[in-house]
Design goal:
Blueprint: H1 13-25, H2 31-40, H3 47-54, E1 72-75, E2 78-80, H4 83-93, E3 102-106, H5 112-121, E4 131-136, H6 139-149, H7 153-160, E5 164-168, E6 181-186, H8 195-199, E7 201-212, H9 219-223, E8 227-234, E9 240-248
Parallel strand pairs: 3-4, 3-6, 4-5, 6-7
Antiparallel strand pairs: 1-2, 7-8, 8-9
The protein binds S-adenosyl-L-homocysteine.
S-adenosyl-L-homocysteine binds at residues 1, 78-81, 106-110, 112-113, 135-138, 141, 170-172, 187-188, 251, 253-254.
Organism: Penicillium cinerascens
Keywords: Cytoplasm, Methyltransferase, S-adenosyl-L-methionine, Transferase
Subcellular location: Cytoplasm
Length: 259
Amino acid sequence: MIRRLSSNFSAPKWQTIRAFSMAWYCSGSTNTELVENLFKVELIKNERVKEAMLGVDRAHYAPSRPYSDSPQPIGHGATISAPHMHGHACEYLIDHLHPGARVLDIGSGSGYLTHVFANLVTAPGASDQGQVIGIDHIPELVELARINMNKSDDGRELQKSGKVKFITADGRLGWKEGAPYDAIHVGAAAEKLHPVLIEQLQAPGRLFIPVESTNDGSIMSSLSGGQYIWVVDKKADGSVHKKKVFQVSYVPLTDPPRS
Ligand code: SAH
């Protein structure tokens, strides 16, 4: 989930400005127009990502302004992320989103990205292994994701067949019952790179996660503060490689609200 579009990208600054202005320019009046616009300005580059996004109507997930390239509130303090951020997440994970892959979507919120992932890993002809688990810690949002996905025939079928499952749980622990995963996506900012998520990765596998920079009060930490997407690769030999890729602004991965 993204709160400020302008902070989705790190330096150099021209790139921030370019992405910010293009994000608005990319909005469309239909789902197809939105996705085609994102592709035209190369906010999405991969044909498979484009096809998967064309296959999910955002109107089922973001009813107020479905084709705007901006985050939208979905209730319970959560938002559906901007389309270009969903695109980025898919692009970073695409090599691991092959037909038959297993995916964990933590902080699944509206369920939109869970559906896009499912389109990528359960393509016709794929093995029956392909599965996406969406986790959120707010039961009402888990129910909302199920309802949203049931608005389309393919979404209903994906849930009926068990290829997509939405679960209420604390995503900071991952979901060991479904591990190992070829790809893990985290849609809210973690305080740290939770080691358990790396443990639950397949080898090879990739984790895409926004992480808060630690603020120890020093000048250096205040200069480099904020949240960054980290991409963590577990290679086939089991070795782990971490890379900080760009700056973002997500809602935090937290304890569930007290009722
Ligand atoms: N990818 C979603 C983003 C939703 S916003 C979308 O685009 O629709 C982030 C989500 O993370 C919220 O739904 C929030 O409830 C969830 N979240 C926050 N902390 C969590 C935790 N500890 N475990 C699971 N989900 C969490």
